[in-house]
Amino acid sequence: MTTFTETDERKALRSAVGELGRKYGRDYILSAAKEGRKTTELWQEAGKLGYLGVAVPEEYGGGGGDIGDLAAVCEELAAAGSPLLLMVVSPAIVGTIIAQYGTDEQKKRWLPGIADGSTTIAFSITESDAGSNSHQIITTGYREADGGWRLKGGKTFISGVDEVENVLVVARTEDAKTGNLKPALFIVPTDAEGFTYQQIDMGIVSPEKQFTLFFDDVRLPADALVGSEDAGIEQLFAGLNPERIMGAAFACGTARLALEKATEYAKERQVWKAPIGSHQAIAHPLAQSYIEIEMARLMTQKAAALYVAGDHMAAGEAANMAKYAAGEAVCNAVDRAIQTHGGNGLAEEYGLVQMLAGSRLSRIAPVSREMVLNFIAQFSLGLPKSY
Ligand SMILES: Cc1cc2nc3c(=O)[nH]c(=O)nc-3n(C[C@H](O)[C@H](O)[C@H](O)COP(=O)(O)OP(=O)(O)OC[C@H]3O[C@@H](n4cnc5c(N)ncnc54)[C@H](O)[C@@H]3O)c2cc1C
Questions:
Q1: Per-range mean pLDDT, top range of 83-87, 134-138, 143-147
Q2: At residue 177, does pLDDT exceed 60?
C-alpha cells in the first residue's frame, strides 16, 4: 500500500535532529560565517548522535537507514537554521559510493569515520572549462608501473576542502577530451605532494568555503581508486542521485526556515488596523510557498524511495525534479520572506538577506535548473536533445 505518512521512526529522527539544530541555531551559523569559524562542534555532535551516519550500513558503524533518513537529517538541520553543507557530499555522495563500490578494505577504512563524523571527505567533479558538461573533464589518472596512479588536472568550486583530509576526485583514465566520460574515482589526501588549493571569494554567507584545486602530478597508491576504472558512469551516479536528493532536502529545509520567519513576522507586524498577514498580498505568497515546499518535500521523498527500491531510472528523474522543485521553492520563499519583512528584510539582524545568495545556489548546484529541464525535455518528454 502506498503511504504518504512517514514512519514513527522517521518522525522521531526529524524531531531529535530539529532539537540539535535549534540548540546551535541561525546565530551560531551566521557568526561562524562572519568570523571565519567552522561548524566543527555541530558536525561532531551530529556525528556522535548517529545523524551523519544514519544511512551508513550498520556493520560499518552506521544506522543502517537509507538516503531518505539522511535527507531528513539534512532538511531538519537546515529548517532549524543550522545547515551542514558538507552533509551533501561526505556521507551522501562519498559514503554511498564507497559503500556500494569500495573494496572491503576501503569500506573498513573510511565508512566508520564518515558515520561518526570523525572523517569528512569532500567531493570534486566540477572543472572550470567543462562546467555543466562533465563529459569534458580533463583531470586524468595515469597508471604507474608500480600499480599506483599519477593525477593531473584541476577542479573548481569545491566545497569544504579546508575542513577535510581527503577529497574524492572524479577523473578519467584516458587522455581523450571528447566522448563520453568513463569516470575513475580517486581518494586524494589534501596534504599529498603536488595537491594545492586556493579559496574562491564567494558572496555566499556560509561557514563552508569553495576552492579551486590543482593536481600537479599527484602520486597516489593503487588503493586510492574507488570502484573500477571500467565501471562507467553508474558508479558515479550512485553518488550523484543522493547528492540531488540531499540538495533538494537542504533547499526544502532552508525554505521552511524562511517561511517560518515570514509567517511569524506577518502575524506580529502591524502598520494599519490589523497585522500585515491579514492582507492577501502578504498572505497568498506565503501560502503559495507552503504549497511549493510541500510539493518539493514530497518529490524529494519519492526520489529517495525510488532510489532505495533500486529503480535507478525513475529515481534519476525524480531526484532531478525534486532538486528543481526545491530550488524554485527556496528562491521564492526567501524572496517572499524578505518582501514580507519590508526594510527589515534587508537588515542583517533579521537574518534573511544573508540567505539570498545561498538560496540562489539551489538553482545552480549540484545540477543547474537548466540542465534539469534539459534532462526532463529529453528523457521524460522524448524531445530532441538541444545541445
Ligand atoms: C557554492 C557552490 C558550491 C559548490 N560545491 C561543489 C562541490 O563541492 N563539488 C563540485 O564538484 N562542484 C561544486 N560546485 C559546482 C557546481 O556543481 C557548478 O557550479 C554547477 O554544476 C554549474 O556549473 P558551472 O558553474 O560551470 O555553470 P556552467 O556550466 O558554466 O553554466 C552556466 C549557465 O549556463 C547554463 N547552461 C549550461 N549548459 C546548458 C545547456 N546545455 N542548456 C541550457 N543551459 C545551459 C547553466 O544552467 C547555467 O545557468 C559548487 C558550486 C557553488 C556555486
A1: 83-87
A2: no
Residue owning the nearest CA to atom 34 of ligand 1: 370
**What pLDDT band is residue 175 in, cutting at 50, 70 and 90?**
low
Contacts 24+ apart (CB under 8 A), 131-135: 132/367, 132/368, 132/370, 132/371, 134/170, 134/181, 135/179, 135/180, 135/181
The CA-based angle 42-48-49, given to 5 degrees, is 90
CB 260 within 8 A of CB 338: no
Nearest protein CA to atom 51 of ligand 1, as residue: 157
| Residue in 190, 188, 184 with CA at minimum distance from that of residue 226 | 184
Tens digit of each residue's pLDDT (9 = 90 or more) over 292-346: 999 999 999 999 999 999 999 999 999 999 999 999 999 999 999 999 999 999 9
Q: Please tell me whether residue 365 adopts helix, strand or coil conformation.
A: coil
φ/ψ bin of 38: left (φ > 0), alpha (ψ from -120 to 50), beta (otherwise): beta
Is any atom of ligand 1 closer than 6 Å to the C-beta of 129? no
